[in-house]
Amino acid sequence: MSEAVAIGLLGHGTVGSAFAQLLDERAEEVRSVTGRAPQIAGVLTTSDGSFEDILERSQVVVELMGGIEPAREYVLAALRSGRSVVTANKQLLSQHGDELLAAAREGGAQLRFEAAVAGVVPVIRVLAESLAAARVERIHGIVNGTTNYILSEMARTGCSYADALAAAQRLGYAEADPTEDVSGKDAAAKMAILARLAFGAPVRLEQVPYEGIEHLTSDDIEYAQELGLGLKLVGTAERVGEGISVRVHPVFLYAGHPLASVAGPYNAVTVESPAITEITMSGPGAGGPQTASAVLGDLVSVLLAPPPTPEPAPPQLEVVTDVESAFYLHMEVADRPGVLAQIAQVLGLQGASIKSVIQKGLGDDARLVMVIHPLLESRLVAACDLIRGLDFVRSGPRAIRVLEEEFV
Amino acid sequence: MSEAVAIGLLGHGTVGSAFAQLLDERAEEVRSVTGRAPQIAGVLTTSDGSFEDILERSQVVVELMGGIEPAREYVLAALRSGRSVVTANKQLLSQHGDELLAAAREGGAQLRFEAAVAGVVPVIRVLAESLAAARVERIHGIVNGTTNYILSEMARTGCSYADALAAAQRLGYAEADPTEDVSGKDAAAKMAILARLAFGAPVRLEQVPYEGIEHLTSDDIEYAQELGLGLKLVGTAERVGEGISVRVHPVFLYAGHPLASVAGPYNAVTVESPAITEITMSGPGAGGPQTASAVLGDLVSVLLAPPPTPEPAPPQLEVVTDVESAFYLHMEVADRPGVLAQIAQVLGLQGASIKSVIQKGLGDDARLVMVIHPLLESRLVAACDLIRGLDFVRSGPRAIRVLEEEFV
Known about the structure:
The structure is a homodimer. By secondary structure, the first copy, chain A, is α/β, with parallel strands linked by helices. Chain A has three domains: about 5-115, NAD(P)-binding Rossmann-like Domain (Rossmann fold, 3-Layer(aba) Sandwich); about 125-280, Dihydrodipicolinate Reductase, domain 2; about 325-400, Alpha-Beta Plaits. In chain A, about 40% of the residues lie in helices and about 25% in strands. The first copy, chain A, contains 13 helices and 14 strands. In chain A, the strands form two sheets. A nine-stranded mixed beta sheet of chain A has the order 10-9-6-7-8-14-11-13-12, with helices on both faces. In chain A, strands 2-1-3-4-5 form a five-stranded parallel beta sheet, with helices on both faces. Chain A is elongated. At the A-B interface, helix 1, helix 5, strand 10 and helix 11 of A face helix 1, helix 5, strand 10 and helix 11 of B.
């Protein structure tokens, strides 16, 4: 006879109902692996159920309501009462992670959240356990499936951003109001969560600068393809000197990069650490069934393991904002002699040097597309301001980051 | 004050010494994450130390000796005494996995072995925990870095197998005697370990048919590139009807497959399950530092968690040997009218149909290269026997499997 374990389920939307169904289907496997038979003790929906009542009858709480309140209050109460919590709530974790982890330590409970970042791609587990004692240097992630789908479609078909977004909405990959995804904010919340795990330092969403994909044109994608570059919305968390930098923006990747071939509504994360070089994990981004699977994996771990909540590391890592990047620049110029030389000179004044360049067209309709070697972003901004002041520059430069070429 | 934990280290070769150094460097991180400060209580080398003495002074044993005996005896003794064991020993696990898992249950100890398959790529952890309650349908793996390097070099440079092997040996990617790797036996042992985890069924190395890469020619790679195919040594473990099939052989992949872009001495594993579609994990194959990192990750988990040794599943899954595959066929023929029609007819008798075909050359030196749709391997063998008997066939057919096109 196996001991039963009572699960309190908070939330019964897409993910909540997918989880309830999956748990029902896989109950025997959970029992076989953990020795405990899971039983849903109560479900809190928007219209039904009392949290206090469900909490009292539960040994483990699964929070799939989303949003900050009342999810925050409920998760804190569960953890403080000693009940472990599995959640998929990235907003909550990225904005109140410290408070939740402190409550877990206080209650001697586990807080698990694989489903909050990259669905069933096991990046949380790998950072929290496999690489817990490793020195992680850098994480690059495609952590938003909506934007990856849109950029893949723009590259594949040459369509506009608006058309690709409409296609994503038709297929259910984008919400009716896509702002959270296309602005990069969703990815920023996920990168804050990953940075905390990787560097043991509290990183709040407000400290993560992000840029979205709304302003990108199929022109840029097309020109860049000639330079061997593909466009992705990439989150980066890395050590910079004695500090860390966490940020999200559209980035060009060379074809050899492990993230370059990630297409459609997929997620992928690359973790670099000296001892391991790098590992890459990829899979479908968050959908109901994938998220439910990640939650179930966490539930299994909760039933197997004691609290793995580490001591909070001293928040000694400074968040750095001005970092070095290589850039793609796109500008429209009058096609006169000496144009390229003058631009190269202006770039040189800021320490930027040109790696590759394409000139297109003639007369007043010429375009200059180039990739420049890494420089501090503040200096790139200064160089662009100077270029904008040149009389032969008709529009631009548009600047998009290019990821380092280490994998070429 | 943190409690100390005494580690007994068995083996001090490349991996053993890399682990000892890494543990020394990362001791403070291990303590911070687990609350316990690791200390090496003793090291057993080929010339020094007594196992009994080291066992007595240890709370956790790390086995990095390799080989079957005396590693088997030592690991069994440690587990039965209640000491958890971390090992990188794939031979031992693939041949004596049942016995070791039974000893772990008996002693209430953990047996962890992430480093035994694909180095630091977290495939063991994902199968044992994230997907422990999922229904895994199929695993595809590039789990031998030596052969992946050799095939990548043959494709990249057009060189022969012998030259690519020599290059691998110069770079330290292949041993002086490369038989274990190039024959596919190393990959077969790893696939047996993965199959056991994925399907909860005991799979022994002897039940895994394998084919190596020694017979492959750069010709095949070149022709196949025209068909959009790249060559990899792939291990497969999958459900087939009510049974399972586990096997290793050279396989052609279409460019869209997640394993197609894995180049050089890298490993990668794709896991398919209905709820998650598929996830892919990749990274450097086993080298000293990577293996040591995987061992350290396991040590952290041992210090965090109670025994996650599941009940043994009833061994009800039959190991199936005749499965369906698509095939690439390469034959030299006299270039007479009706040759292709006759071959198509012979294939048709066995239920095989041609998907794509290339004809090269003229007269007696003509070549016919084709890809045929999936059929049972026994029927392919029968078709090849018939084709060999046709008077215009000068050599071949050479047959190499092609992975399903689900990712195209």
